Amino acid sequence: MSDQDRARALDAVGIGKDSVIAEKAKWGIEWKFDKYYTPDGTPPSEELAKMTPYETSVEKGNLLVNTGIQLLLDLLIGAGGTAFTNGASYIGTGSDGTAAAATQTDLLDGGAERKGMESTFPSRASQTLSFKSIFTTGDGNYEWLEIGVFNASTAGTMLNRKVVSKGTKEATDTWTITITITIS
Questions:
Q1: Which of 2, 23, 60, 144 has the CA that lies 20 to 30 A from 14?
Q2: pLDDT by residue (tens digit) across 155-173?
Q3: Is the pLDDT of residue 64 over 80?
Q4: Beta-strand relationship, 113-116 and 143-150
Q5: Edge-to-edge order in the sheet of strand 158-168
Q6: Which residue in 165, 178, 171, 35 sits closest to 95, CA to CA?
Q7: Are the beta carbons of 120 and 178 closer than 8 angstroms?
Q8: Distance separating alpha carbons of residues 9 and 134, to the nearest angstrom
């Protein structure tokens, strides 16, 4: 077989009656945690942004849960539902380390806490969506083992859930979570 024939054979694609052609979308997610020591209380957002966190970490991945997928599809076709707007988006944290499952509809810690969005979040740039919440000195002072995004301060729909140990938040700390979701 000549090189020219070999090249032709590699370029050929056969499609039969049982062939499947699939397109794939990628759901890429990062959870960024910034931890600040704020013993005098949490400063306003603009001052907090100028401070240097004592720890920053980034976690990748999560589980997109069934109810979150269904809501995204409903919103896509105009079938109704509560959109993830600034006034209706929350990041929740809890202390239950049970593995994430697609059938879960809430964080598993009964005392889990949700915080609303910062003023310009959620936001979209190209194919990336970002959410950001600040857990002040009085919020979420327990061991963080689970996180998720919601469209209500209580109940509502959970979009996703991640189980990860981030340590114990103390009353002298302010922690921020920035979540970026990229679809390509």
A1: 2
A2: 999 999 999 999 999 999 9
A3: yes
A4: unpaired
A5: 63-64, 158-168, 143-150, 90-94, 113-116
A6: 165
A7: no
A8: 57
